[in-house]
Amino acid sequence: MTVLVFLDPSREHGRIADAGQPQLMATDLGTTRGDGVFESLLVVRGTPRKLQAHLDRLGHSADAMKLEIPDQQSWRKAITTALDEFAATEQADAPEIVLKLISTRGVEGTGRPTSWVSAFLPSPTAHRQREHGIDVLLLDRGYDSTLSDRAPWLLLGAKTLSYAVNMAAIRYAAEQGADDVIFTSSDGKVLEGPTATVLVARTHDGVRELLTPRRDSGILPGTTQGALFSAAGQAGWKLGYGPLEPSDLMEADGVWLVSSIRLLAPVNSIDGTPVATSPSLTTELGGLLEKIV
Ligand code: PLP
Q1: Residue 262: exposure state from Cβ atoms within 10 A (0-12, 13-18, ≥19)
Q2: How far is the CA of 159 from the centre of ligand 1 (A)?
């Protein structure tokens, strides 16, 4: 069951559409070129989490590719419509819903973006990986960690619809018996997962530290990592932004892939080698995440 609401300048609160029927033109540049931006966020008991951070990032991604998308008020209204509509379905009691916000460059030649919100249930994989953790492979992304500034046309820090490579990396990992991937740069730095940010906990001189790769290393700035860092900082953790190398992961007290839908997935092994896991740290960090709205 998917609820679909198109943002439509002639309908203030958006236009509800049937997700079971064709709704997009085959010439939409989102479908022909993956030319667009998106966000995925979690709704817990009816409330979208970190909505402002997701709307801000959607705007930054669109700016990076010079795409004019609807304003934040229009997104908020369409989201309310989608959640109201979802609440009227037989899945209304679901504790968690996924919201996807998508804006494409629109039908070729029109110069008008196509934008919509969809609401649906999370996949069971997200829950399973939260609970049981994941085995990951380190895969080379093929460029160095300083490329982002030199090559803005690569849109490295933007959440664009061009996720075919990310999905191919996850399929490659699955073929090798792993669940997910951590990309590394050609200069040996840890980057990110195909759909998640890398988080590392370690104790240094008796001080508990949470680390994540440098944000200027061509990775997507994660809203989950950002919110978790704020909460962890207030809870007394020391925070740091890399650079991280694979050895930092192997020597950590815990490694997680964090993202909006899956939240906190503990990494059990990297390239087949077990890494330290800490159920108590996962519970503690998960508790901080739960409080974030
Ligand atoms: N990095 C990439 C490449 C992603 O696609 C995502 C989320 O989909 C993330 C990181 C995590 O971002 P967030 O925590 O905002 O979901």
Answers
A1: buried
A2: 8
